[in-house]
Amino acid sequence: MRHWPLLALRLTTPRLELRLPGLDDLDALADRAAEGVHDSGEMPFGEPWTDAPPHERARSTVQVHFRQWGTWSPGHWACSFVTVWESQVVGVQEMRAVDFAVTREVATGSWLGRRFHGKGIGTEMRAAVLHLAFAGLGARYARSSAFADNAASLAVSRKLGYREDGIGVFNRRGEAVVQQRVRLSRDEWRTPDGFEIHNLAPCLPLFGVAEGITDAGGAP
């Protein structure tokens, strides 16, 4: 699509493909949300959207992508990729930024269908968007956060080299909980082998990037 080149943007790793979803992908992603994202005793999200009934989780999963596309601007964007593993849509990996042209900083968030946990997919898909951020878009920093009891997310951050960046206290289901912030700099990032970016060049203005970065590790 000439006027929305983001639909052709793809990230590939040794096991995964990340892409902006088509309608069939959104349907599959909604199924993953309806099936369950985490154990019932957990709540890894600041907005407890997974407390909703399965059909509402499915519908809201589709709607959030429509909202992101409809409000996208170079100064304020959220890019949510579906993650495909063994030909299945298994979850979503988001990267977002405000005033990226100035700040050169992105933030990330993600979720996986519960039955796909424990396979290393979460680490690999976050590494894919970090490669896009640092090598493709020229970001200086990437940040993330997780509640202190979300051991899996914090383990991914440690594995990828993030450093602790302070804490915050948030209201989660009516209780105060600690959130750990983490940050990774471009200088500390090392792209694993086999990570590539495809069809990036036409998308750069939509990310607030004036021209391509030469070390993208794949055809821009």
UniProtKB/TrEMBL annotation:
The residues covered by the N-acetyltransferase domain are 16-183
Record field: transmembrane: none
PROSITE patterns (UniProt xref)? GNAT
Q: What is this protein called?
A: GNAT family N-acetyltransferase
What organism is the protein native to?
Microbispora hainanensis
